[in-house]
């Protein structure tokens, strides 16, 4: 399989994937860790609880506050998205850091397809979160706070993967066009 040279865009994606690691494992994954690891001040990973508590006290994000005890039909999608993040996104992020950072290799068609699916999943699940913001209680979340969620907190997590999706689409299309050109050339001979 042909490997493309590592481009400046690969370095941008590497930075994105590096940012994802602490977000996934220190913030979003806390629902999956046993509480004894982070909940009490004596816990070895209590700093994760402090990060989450600070975020919640600053923004009052109902998605970050989701628990099985507070779940409603409206929020039933949250554990599904968190599970997708842990079972699908996290391994891809770790692989991408290895591939683009440690190995410093360009991408193959298979990598580009994997990153395309990752980018779609990340953009789509974030878009659902953005859509959800529109339905939050106006008495609790004023328009300025909703704008902060949409543009500052969730927006980049939608826009950057959307750009990655377009980049991976263009790379895959270039590979397909090159293969088609070779196939047409062989038929002409």
The tally of strands reads 0
- Return Rg in Å: 20 Å
Tell me which oligomeric state these chains represent: single chain
> So what's the overall shape?
elongated
* Overall pLDDT level: 91
| Distance between the ends | 24 Å
Helix content: 55-70%
Based on helices, strands and strand pairing, what is the structural class?
mainly alpha
Unreliable spans: none
* Number of helices, counting only DSSP H or I runs of 4 residues or more: 5
Whole-number tally of structural domains: 1
Report the major sheet.
none
> Which band does the percent of strand residues land in?
under 5%
Helix/strand order: HHHHH
Transmembrane segments: 12-33, 77-101, 113-136, 148-166
Domain EXPERA: 9-165
Protein name: Efficient mitochondria targeting-associated protein 19
Membrane topology: Multi-pass membrane protein
Topology:
Layout: H1 8-27, H2 46-59, H3 78-102, H4 109-133, H5 143-188
Summarize, please.
This protein is an all-alpha fold and 189 residues long. 69% of the residues lie in helices and 0% in strands. Belongs to the TMEM97/sigma-2 receptor family.
Notes on the structure:
The chain has 189 residues and is mainly α. It has five helices and no strands.
Question: What labels would you give this structure?
Answer:
mainly alpha; 189 residues; elongated
């Amino acid at each position: 399989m042909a490997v493309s040279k590592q481009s400046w865009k690969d370095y941008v994606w590497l930075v994105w994937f590096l940012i994802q690691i602490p977000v996934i494992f220190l913030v979003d994954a806390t629902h999956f860790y046993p509480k004894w690891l982070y909940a009490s001040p004596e816990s070895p990973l209590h700093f994760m609880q402090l990060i989450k508590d600070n975020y919640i006290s600053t923004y009052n994000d109902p998605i970050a506050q989701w628990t099985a005890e507070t779940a409603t039909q409206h929020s039933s999608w949250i554990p599904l998205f968190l599970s997708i993040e842990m079972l699908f996104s996290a391994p891809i992020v770790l692989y991408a850091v290895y591939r683009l950072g440690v190995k410093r290799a360009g991408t193959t068609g298979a990598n580009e397809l994997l990153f395309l699916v990752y980018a779609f999943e990340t953009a789509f699940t974030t878009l659902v979160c953005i859509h959800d913001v529109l339905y939050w209680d106006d008495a609790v979340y004023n328009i300025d706070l909703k704008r902060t969620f949409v543009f500052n907190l969730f927006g980049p997590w939608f826009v950057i993967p959307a750009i990655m999706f377009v980049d991976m689409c263009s790379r895959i299309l270039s590979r397909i066009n090159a293969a088609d050109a070779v196939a047409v050339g062989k038929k002409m001979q």
